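Quarterly update from the structural biology core.
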Amino acid sequence: MNKVIITCAITGAETTRKQCPNLPITPEELAQSAYESYQAGAAIIHLHVRKEDGSPTADIATFKKAIELIRKKCNVVIEITTGGAVGMSPEERIAPVSLEPDMASLDCGTVNFGNDYIVNTLPIMRQFASEMRKYKVKPTLECFDVSHIISSHILIEEKLLSPPYHYGLVMNVPSILPYNHKLVSDMLSQLPSESEFTLMGIGRAHLPAIFGALSFGGHIRVGYEDNIYYSKGVIASSNAQFVERAVRIVKEAQKEIASPSDVRKYFGLRE
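Predicted structure, tokenized:
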């Protein structure tokens, strides 16, 4: 794709209001943050939802309300999580795909997650890919390790995935691959043909990963799920603030920003 896609992950499952007072939690807050991020230049919104107390949930009704509110405000591409949160069952995590969002994340392997871990066996991956195919939802193949990319090849060989493929390369989560150009290069060397990739730098890797994505010819993800600090010790005022900076950097690199329509056309999503 000859334009740069900016995804905004507006809330995630781990960040709390105590850490980030501006974190959107309710469906109404999520919709407003999604709209502001779209206005700033995001083409894709990566969506988790929360309970009223701020804890993560995969509740279908909550996802449905948030998706409907976002779609009333704008035509941004909605990518829901099926990674969910630590402790959720596979059945909980995959259930919201039945709402037919545009896209959904598909974790391609079991991964350490700080002091915890999230299980994604090959049978779970097959189940998730099959459900996404059933509901015509485009997967983003989230990979935290080179071996996860190799595992995704199995789904491709079994014809559970269709090109063009979209990979999300997640780096710098505590206890997994740190962010550096050598490891990014190693991951990219294993991508199949007809692939696009979004580089996700967690925490202090957030800004370096934006520059890395551009230098390697990939796409960008920003937002409170990945990082709450706009600069050292300064919490970002909104998700849109992160998007605005990413847009400036992309334009300084003399590249174009992809619109939601560009993303829908390229990946064959519903209009």
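The domain at 6-267 is CATH 3.20.20.70 (TIM Barrel).
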